[in-house]
Amino acid sequence: MEIMEIILLSFLVVCAVSVALSKNLLTSIVIFMAYSVIMSIIWMVLESPDLAITEAAVGAGVTSVLFYITLKKIHAMKGEEDDETEE
């Protein structure tokens, strides 16, 4: 079980660093979702299912959807900018 915890914690660190270094906002949101899912699994390993469910619902679910909607509203996604310039 200790090896699994080390692997999960290393994935958590990799996600945190890659979100900080990512230049694409949509990629950052996807990595943030992965971070939340990994954190949810860690909460389950720590035998705290109530926090795991909350992290999965709020962190990976609601917050990521709100970030995506915000990107669409402010036209920050590259694909949308490319479509507007072609017309």
**Treating each run of at least 4 consecutive H or I residues as one helix, how many helices?**
4
Secondary-structure element series = HHHH
Distance between the termini: 56 Å
Helix-strand category:
mainly alpha
What's the average pLDDT? Answer: 86
**Number of DSSP strand runs:** 0
Backbone CA Rg: 16 Å
Oligomer: single chain
Q: Major beta sheet, specifics?
A: none
The shape, in one word, is flat
Query: Beta fraction of the residues?
Result: under 5%
What does this protein structure show overall?
With 87 residues, the protein is mainly α. The chain is built from four helices and no strands. It has helices at residues 2-21, 25-45, 49-73, 78-86. Helix 1 runs antiparallel to helix 2 and helix 2 packs antiparallel against helix 3 (49-73). The radius of gyration is 16 Å and the shape is flat.
Keywords:
87 residues, flat, single chain, 4 helices, mainly alpha
